[in-house]
């Protein structure tokens, strides 16, 4: 059953740029699958959704999607990961807290081919459910709450996911510093610099701890 349609405002994008992508492989029925990278602009909007959390805590830098991002016919914003999140909340699939914890623990639904709506204007995107199973309402206001029980994992799927390590939290602490790892041009220079700095700080702290332990 749906949880409840949640109050989630439209979230305008700062820049209507096509997200950087990377070809991954041939997926279901030979369709091309890509990694859609999350840019800094999208990261800041995700923080607006997950109030009280820094999305960087999820350690998530992108999502695997069949096909490439396309611009919305209503507002021109390209389809992004945030549209799945926004749609799920508006249609009562999950709560914010459940979704954030699931992303942080590397879990996702057994089926993510839903009707997805633009988080800026609410228009239906080209991302649709299989065989138009959800009806394809033209706007989020006309879309019915989604019965998530149709997409619950079967016991067999749960066992398979557990065997493959799905849902296992990260062992390492995710470094956060209030700025996204990928800027809006696709550059990771700031991220790589911050990681190098963090590693140097950790090494220095460890060396100081050893020195103190042996009384140097």
Topology:
Blueprint: E1 21-26, E2 32-37, H1 40-49, E3 62-66, H2 81-90, H3 96-104, H4 155-163, H5 189-213
Antiparallel strand pairs: 1-2, 2-3
Notes on the structure:
It is built from 5 helices and 3 strands, in the order ββαβαααα. The protein is an alpha+beta fold and 216 residues long. It has a 3-stranded antiparallel beta sheet, with no helix packed on it. β1 and β2 form a beta hairpin. α1 runs parallel beside α2 (81-90). The longest helix is centred in the C-terminal third of the chain and has 25 residues, at 189-213. It is elongated. It starts with 20 loop residues before the first strand and ends with a helix.
Strand content: 5-15%
Provide the residue-averaged pLDDT: 77
Number of helices: 5
Number of strands: 3
SSE pattern, N- to C-terminal: EEHEHHHH
Low-confidence stretches: 157-172
Main beta sheet strand tally, sense and closure: 3 strands, antiparallel
Shape assignment: elongated
Physical arrangement of strands within the biggest beta sheet: 1-2-3
CA-based gyration radius: 20 Å
Query: Structural class, please?
Result: alpha+beta
Cα end-to-end separation? 64 Å
* Amount of helix: 25-40%
Question: Summarize this, please?
Answer:
This protein has 216 residues and is of the alpha+beta class. It is 29% helix and 8% strand.
Task: Describe this protein with a few key phrases.
216 residues, 5 helices, 3-stranded antiparallel sheet, alpha+beta, elongated
